[in-house]
Design goal:
The protein has 218 residues and is α+β, with helices and mostly antiparallel strands. The protein has nine helices and six strands, in the order αααααβαββαβαββα. Strands 2-3-1-4-6-5 form a six-stranded antiparallel β-sheet, covered by helices on one side. A hairpin with a 2-residue loop joins β5 and β6. α1 packs across α4 and α3 crosses α4. The protein is elongated, with a radius of gyration of 22 Å.
Length: 218
């Protein structure tokens, strides 16, 4: 998010708060004093091409934000959720990205009941089918090869099943993706449904991802 160079101290303060709210990991680092307020203020000013004098306004806005922010120990709650989360790693997963058509969706209903792993995510321009390798060819045939935009086999699914209260705990997905990003792990696909959070990874990243998440469980 950009702050205009001619912005007033008041507008700089408002937009600084917006930046912190859009970047919860940064706000968390500031609250835990991992990140230095002055360094973050300088970085925000530099990235938004503000004058040197604006650093004072940004720094003041950050400090007011930290003083008025709700006293919520999200890390404690996230660790508690993580402790109760079951982690499973499954190999032999294929990603199929196809053009979305109602007729194709109806065809996939039958194969979804046979597959050991099946998930369908639909957007306006495409649908992504995540299915076990064993049934991938049949699904591809049902869809019609001309409808397939992309196919990637030999992937791994890393599934996290958490307690129901995860629905009321903010930041869980951000917490997990941050752990994986710090290990240089690339997430091919990611989706969540109810208490399940699923990541699709390449083989070279799968074991490292499992180890990284097991390491952060209390």
């Amino acid at each position: 998010m950009n702050i205009r160079g001619d912005a007033t101290p008041e507008s700089i303060a408002q937009q600084t708060v917006s930046i912190l709210e859009r970047e919860p990991l940064l706000a968390q680092a500031l609250r835990r004093r991992i990140a230095n307020v002055s360094a973050v203020a300088k970085k925000i000013a530099e990235e938004n091409k503000l004058g040197r004098s604006s650093v004072v306004a940004v720094r003041a806005a950050i400090r007011r934000y930290l003083e008025t922010a709700e006293d919520y120990d999200e890390r404690k709650d996230l660790k508690r959720i993580m402790k109760q989360t079951e982690i499973r790693l499954q190999s032999g997963i294929t990603i199929l990205v196809a053009h979305p058509r109602l007729r194709q969706l109806l065809k996939l209903q039958e194969i979804s009941q046979k597959a050991d792993f099946f998930s369908l995510i639909e957007s306006e321009n495409a649908m992504t089918i995540i299915i076990d390798d064993k049934h991938a060819s049949a699904a591809e045939k049902m869809l019609g090869r001309s409808s397939i935009i992309e196919k990637q086999g030999g992937q791994y699914s890393l599934s996290l099943t958490s307690p129901k209260e995860i629905e009321n705990i903010p930041g869980f997905a951000a917490f997990i993706t941050d752990v994986l990003a710090r290990k240089g792990i690339n997430i091919k696909k990611y989706f969540s449904c109810y208490t399940d959070t699923v990541f699709i990874l390449e083989k070279k990243d799968a074991i490292a991802a499992l180890e990284a998440l097991e390491a952060v469980k209390p």
